[in-house]
Design a protein that fits this description.
The complex is a heterodimer of chains A (373) and B (373). By secondary structure, chain A is mainly α. Chain A contains 15 helices and 2 strands. Chain A is globular and about 70 Å long. The chains are: A mainly alpha (373), B alpha/beta (373).
Chain lengths: 373, 373
């Protein structure tokens, strides 16, 4: 498996580790999260495997090219449009939650517009880069942030204030029937491979994942998923986390570096994860933008030689992001994310796998025809 | 095309540079426009009915710390209905923004402990920006007097109360440390009672005394631990080292210095037996004072003498806690952590705890008689 593919999956997990996933998992702590964890991991890994191996049949092609070649336009257009809106929404949730974290914890006096604008200006620079450059960018950012993340997690696991009894209480809730909500949230958590719909354009020589790479991926995912759920409980208590909106911020604020330059780990933590959040948004919105511009293209919207469709779409991205971030409440955010995870995510997975299977069949029969002819 | 790209790049980098101008330091408020709160004391109010009196210890900005002869703190007190109300009222009493971001100590009046603590403490955890690694403590006299008391050993630009609790200054088994996040998780979760240190001070000699602690019982009269009980509790629960131990056997008088403590326990609730807790304690240390010449070959004997004595003290402590129906060791937590979850598990524990039996085994390993025999 290409290491860049690995990064796509890893970044999706790490950026969501602090965002919305932990709260949804913790809310379901006494209605079946633990068993959902155990179920969602193999299912997520299996879907990842299926998606990657299906894309190996179409080297160097993104979903728009695959659909254009093998399906009629009236199927391709709605699917691409639907996917692009879903990806836009996924990026937007991360933008909103990190904006909320900044305004609550770092700069309470700052205008929300300034924060969102600072984010989206950087992201805009990212999403107009070529697919290949974004993958290189992700490698650079991961190399810079992973040591900090590893440090914080090790610090957390070895902290004497971490009470393992709370973790064990949470684990003892294994005897409850798994909940669909935790399951779908976790599925989204490990679904970074779906970004291949555009990023496959870079992978001209993608191979089926080997057993070794799948084992490695499963181990890392398991570690991150378990940490996301159990470490906040060890620091924040079992029932006490019920009303905490950002469990991981509370967790990192509970750690301290006794002899460190700064005692509070939370600042290292927020800085590191902000970098990852920006990267994750760049990847997701890049996919969204590419999907959208494969469907919407105004031929006559031109200024001198340049076609202005993409800048127009970006301006739409900005306007919607600004409007929604200002209007939405934290409750509304969680509600819409839950709807997204519960209903839209399975649809995306099924439609994606279905399309690829159909296209693969179409490609095979075309091949045969060519041979016969 | 390359020229277009270059121009686009120039455009975006221009925007990013302009965006930098928006970042003017500490969220638009420079450090000279802020005043830092270093301690908060909460007392019941005498003026306002059911109200609170909040005292803030503020750091006065000084040009040069070296030239300051004495402490440079200033204090603010205000009576109001709630902590938040008092805090926002006090914002009108200073010309700068009150910043709680550096606050490390919250000191409560003893009388408040038997009332509902939810309300005064909610402000600190709900409002982002307060450190969760701050210390919660109880004042022997009033919180206001304790916060405003300046001991003689406190040179400019240090805060004596921080050194007591953060394990970098004094390290004594008599000092219990409770962080705000620990307070929160124990208060809102079932199964463990919070222990808070009691801060007293000696006005004539000008120093603090922190050697007692108090066990909270939510909404009821708290249980106070003597300094000897505090020492035993702390050494078992937090593995506090530097444990000085006094034994008297016939005419032999020894003081041990313990530097390693191990404690583990098991809750056994077999059918047909009285539930019991098997506790195993291992302490390792050296002799630090004696009234007689000691023989290195008799070390084991001295250890056994010490063990029986410690066993008696620990049993006394455990029974005292059990009689008062408080559980600072978190036995209830362990009970839940080792049994599969069910709804009425805490009710079961509440029934079991008053009649549980303790079975304490102490082993003292003496490594030497100090530098002399």
């Amino acid at each position: 498996m290409s290491r860049f593919l690995f990064y796509l999956i890893l970044i999706n997990m790490l950026a969501n580790m602090v965002a919305l996933t932990p709260r949804i998992l913790i809310l379901g702590r006494d209605s079946g999260t633990v068993l959902s964890l155990i179920l969602a991991l193999p299912v997520g890994m299996a879907i990842t495997y299926i998606i990657i191996s299906l894309f190996t049949h179409f080297p160097g092609q993104g979903l728009p090219e695959i659909l254009r070649e093998h399906t009629p336009k009236w199927i391709a257009t709605p699917i691409l449009l639907f996917f692009s809106l879903c990806w836009y929404f996924a990026g937007l949730t991360i933008l909103i939650i990190y904006t909320f974290i900044i305004i609550r914890l770092i700069t309470p006096d700052m205008s929300i517009y300034t924060i969102v604008l600072t984010f989206i200006i950087v992201i805009t620079y990212g999403i107009v880069m070529t697919t290949r450059n974004i993958l290189y960018l992700s490698e650079v950012i991961l190399i810079m942030t992973v040591p900090f993340i590893a440090f914080i997690l090790i610090k957390g696991y070895f902290s004497p204030e971490l009470n393992w009894d709370y973790v064990r209480i949470a684990a003892m809730h294994i005897n409850q029937f798994p909940s669909y909500r935790s399951f779908s949230t976790l599925l989204y958590f490990v679904m970074g491979a779906a970004n291949l719909v555009i990023f496959n354009r870079y992978f001209t020589n993608l191979k089926k994942p080997t057993r070794k790479s799948m084992v490695l991926l499963t181990l890392i995912s398991t570690f991150i998923v378990l940490t996301t759920y159990f470490l906040p409980i060890g620091f924040g208590g079992f029932e006490a986390l019920d009303n905490v909106l950002y469990p991981w911020i509370l967790t990192s604020d509970s750690m301290r570096m006794k002899y460190g330059i700064i005692e509070r780990v939370v600042f290292v933590f927020i800085g590191t994860f902000l970098a990852l959040a920006v990267l994750s948004m760049t990847i997701i919105w890049h996919v969204s933008l590419q999907l959208l511009s494969s469907v919407i293209h105004f031929k006559h919207l031109k200024w001198r030689k340049y076609n202005l469709t993409t800048p127009l779409l970006i301006v739409c991205f900005w306007a919607i992001a600004l409007y929604i971030t200002k209007k939405i409440t934290i409750h509304g955010l969680y509600k819409s994310v839950r709807v997204f995870d519960d209903f839209f995510l399975p649809i995306i997975v099924f439609v994606l796998i279905g399309c690829l299977l159909l296209a693969k069949k179409g490609a095979a029969s075309k091949c045969r025809k060519l041979k016969k002819g | 095309m390359p020229q277009t790209k270059k121009r686009m790049k120039g455009f975006y980098s221009g925007i990013i540079v302009i965006a930098l101008l928006l970042q003017t330091g500490c969220a638009f408020k420079d450090i000279d426009k802020r005043i830092f709160v270093l301690g908060v004391g909460i007392d019941p109010s005498e003026k306002v009915e059911d109200g609170l009196r909040v005292t803030l210890k503020l750091a006065k900005p000084a040009g040069d710390v070296k030239q300051e002869a004495a402490q440079s703190f200033s204090y603010l007190s205000h009576d109001s209905d709630s902590v938040a109300q008092a805090f926002y009222d006090m914002e009108t009493h200073v010309d700068k923004k009150l910043d709680l971001g550096h606050n490390r100590s919250i000191i409560l009046n003893k009388e408040l402990l038997s009332t509902d603590l939810d309300e005064p403490m909610d402000f600190f955890t709900r409002r982002g920006g307060t450190q969760l690694i701050g210390y919660v403590a109880v004042a022997e006299k009033t919180a206001e007097e304790t916060v405003t008391f300046a001991p003689d050993t406190e040179p400019p630009a240090t805060i004596a109360l921080y050194n007591f609790f953060d394990d970098t200054g004094t390290e004594s088994p008599y000092v219990v440390t409770t962080f705000l996040f620990e307070f929160r998780r124990q208060a809102l979760s079932n199964g463990k009672n919070t222990v808070l240190p009691i801060i007293d001070f000696n006005e004539e000699q000008g120093h603090f005394i922190v050697n007692k602690s108090i066990v909270l019982k939510w909404g009821e009269e708290p249980v106070e631990l003597t300094s000897s009980q505090t020492k035993h509790f702390n050494s078992l629960m937090n593995k506090a080292s530097g444990f000085n131990y006094n034994i008297q056997e016939d005419d032999l008088h020894l003081v041990l210095s313990i530097d390693e403590v191990k404690m583990k326990y098991k809750i056994i609730t077999d059918e047909g037996q009285t539930p019991r807790i098997d506790m195993q304690i291992t302490k390792t240390g050296v002799v630090s004072e004696s009234n007689k010449r000691l023989k290195s070959s008799h070390l084991q004997k001295y250890g056994e003498i010490a063990a029986t004595d410690i066993e008696k003290k620990v049993m006394e402590l455990l029974t005292m806690l059990q009689e008062n129906d408080v559980d600072p060791f978190g036995f209830g937590l362990r009970y839940r952590a080792t049994r599969l979850s069910r709804k009425d598990i805490m009710e079961d524990w509440k029934r079991i705890y008053p009649e549980i039996e303790f079975n304490v085994q102490v082993k003292v390993n003496l490594k030497g008689t100090g530098i002399v025999e």
